[in-house]
Amino acid sequence: MSVRKHDNLSGSGCDRSCCLKVAHLGVSMGDQVILEDVNFHLHCGEITALIGPNGAGKSTLFRTILGQLPHSGEIDFQRAGGKHTRPLIGYVPQSPSFDRGDPVSVLDLFIASIADWPVFLPTPKKLRERVLRCLSRVHAEPLVDKRIGSLSGGELQRVLLAMALEPVPHILILDEPLSGVDIEGERQLLDMLDEVRQQYDLSILLSTHDFATLEEYADKVILLQSSVLKSGPPREVLSSHEFRDVFHLSLGRGWTN
Ligand SMILES: Nc1ncnc2c1ncn2[C@@H]1O[C@H](COP(=O)(O)OP(=O)(O)OP(=O)(O)O)[C@@H](O)[C@H]1O
C-alpha cells in the first residue's frame, strides 16, 4: 500500500498553508443543539479523519461547511498567501444507493453532473473524452459505460470521487467513503485519496467508523461529539481517554493516556 503521511503536519498551529479554519461553530435544529463550539483547522495536502459515534454530528458538520445549514461561529478559507476566498469544495455523500436495474450509465451520471447536455441525446465525442479524462484521475476509465447499479461499492466510490474532483476543488469532503466497500476496495480508495491529495495538494476531510487504518493514512484525527473532544495525530487520539470514554472501551494494554 502506498499511503504515506506527511511529516510533522498534525499540529493545530498554522505553520504551513492553512486551508480552512472553523472557529466556535454552532448548529442547532429546533431545540436540539447538534454542534457546539467546534474548532479546528484543515491544511492543504493533509488527510483529516473525522470520527465520532452515531449521531455525533459528523454529517451535520459537513453540510454546514458546504453552506447548507445556518450556523453560528466562523468558517474561513484562506489560500496560501493569505487571500480569503470562498473555497471550492468537492463532496462525496454517504452511500448513495442506486437501483440494480437502473439503466443510467456512469457516462450519463457524469454528464448530468458536469455538463448542460441532455443525456437522452447522443454524447458528443468531446464530452465523452472529458468524462474519460475525469475518470482517469481515479483510474476508472473502464467503468465509463457500466450501469451505475451494477458497480461494486468501491467502484461507485471511485466514480463519485472522480465527479467530486471535477473541477479540482480546494477541499474534498467524503462522508463515510469506506462503508460498504470491501477490504480490497478500501485499500484502492485510500491509495487513490493519497494520490490525489499529493497531486493537487488537496485538503481531504473524511468521516469514518473504521479505526484500523487511521494510523496508515490520516495525518490528523478529529474526535467529535457535538464539539471536538480531541484532535491530533491518530495514535494520540486513539489512545486518549476521550476516545475510550466515547466508544465505551474498557482499559487494556496499549491504552496509555
Ligand atoms: N434535519 C434534521 N433535523 C433534526 N435533527 C437532525 C437533522 N439532521 C440530523 N439531525 C440530528 O443531528 C444529530 C447528528 O446527526 P448527524 O447525521 O450529523 O450525525 P453523524 O455523526 O453523521 O451520525 P452517523 O455516524 O450515524 O452518520 C442527530 O441527533 C440527528 O438526529
Task: List its traits.
binds adenosine-5'-triphosphate; 9 strands; transport; ATP-binding; 3-stranded antiparallel sheet; ABC transporter; ATP binding; 257 residues; 6-stranded mixed sheet; Rossmann fold; alpha/beta; ABC_transporter-like_ATP-bd
What is the typical, i.e. mean, pLDDT? Answer: 86
**Strand line-up in the sheet with most strands:** 5-6-7-3-8-9
Bound molecules: adenosine-5'-triphosphate
Shape: globular
SSE-based structural type? alpha/beta
What oligomerization state is this entry in? single chain
Provide structural commentary.
The chain is α/β, with parallel strands linked by helices and 257 residues long. It has two domains: 18-96 and 169-246, P-loop containing nucleotide triphosphate hydrolases (Rossmann fold), CATH 3.40.50; 99-150, no CATH class. Helices cover 29% and strands 23% of the residues. The chain has helices spanning 58-65, 106-114, 125-136, 153-164, 183-200, 214-217, 234-238, 241-246, and strands at residues 18-29, 32-43, 47-51, 72-77, 89-92, 171-174, 203-207, 220-225, 227-232. The chain has a six-stranded mixed β-sheet with strand order 5-6-7-3-8-9, sandwiched between helices. A three-stranded antiparallel β-sheet has the order 2-1-4, covered by helices on one side. A hairpin with a 1-residue loop joins β8 (220-225) and β9 (227-232). α4 runs parallel beside α5 (183-200). It is globular, with a radius of gyration of 19 Å. 37% of the residues are buried. The model is unreliable at 1-13 and 253-257 (pLDDT under 50). The site of adenosine-5'-triphosphate (ATP) has 11 residues, from β2 and α1. Keywords: ATP-binding, Nucleotide-binding, Transport. Residues 20-251 form the ABC transporter domain. GO terms for molecular function: ATP binding; ATP hydrolysis activity. Pfam families: ABC_tran (PF00005). It comes from Intestinimonas butyriciproducens.
